[in-house]
Amino acid sequence: MKAPAAAAYQQKVDTLCKLIGYTFNDETLLQLALTHRSCGNRNNERLEFLGDSIVNFVIAHALFEKFPKAREGQLSRLRAGLVKGVTLAQVAIEMQVGPCLKLGAGELKSGGQRRESILADATEAIIGAIYQDAGMQVCEARILEWFGPRLQNLSLTDTQKDPKTRLQEYLQAKKADLPMYDLVDVQGHDHEQVFTIQCHTQLLDKPTQAKASSRRIAEQKSATLALQQLGQEAV
User: How far is CA 78 from CA 29, 43, 108, 116, 161, in A?
Assistant: First the structure.
């Protein structure tokens, strides 16, 4: 990396450290956390594995303390919503992780710095790196700071099951076949794709159809439309 490019990159890393609220004693840990597997064997996958376990524990403990009367299933659903990929990716965007990522040429060209899965993995890897650098107390404090507003805004009304699960359970209760989801169209470039999904159910004459920036979200939207037509969801 040439001097001007190196200086510009270091400036982005300094901004990242300010936003995450932590300066590394061993900056090689941060560099490793920011290195995607497309760069080679020395990458952030091991730190991601560690960070995934830590963030699940920290969020679980925070929810346990916040909702003393919540049932296990409610706590599990709340935790799943907070530590899912899309939320971790949002945290990464807020901390400006993307511009600091080290990606192989192919991932860089295809917009990997903006890809939800890569950003989510990097967030977990940074968590693992902070733990390795400073221990659990500091790591927990950082996680709770990043997730603070999301934790504060949660209530037990947020524990409702996702639309696909609700649709499946409704159809099972009616002794109908399980829903089927078909990918009918994909448009756009690799990093800006729009997916069109149809949801087929035995109790509806026509499939419901929805579009979204990921297949998963499009499936959830099409399931919501099916629930609406079945009278199980407010329009």
Answer: 30, 30, 34, 20, 10
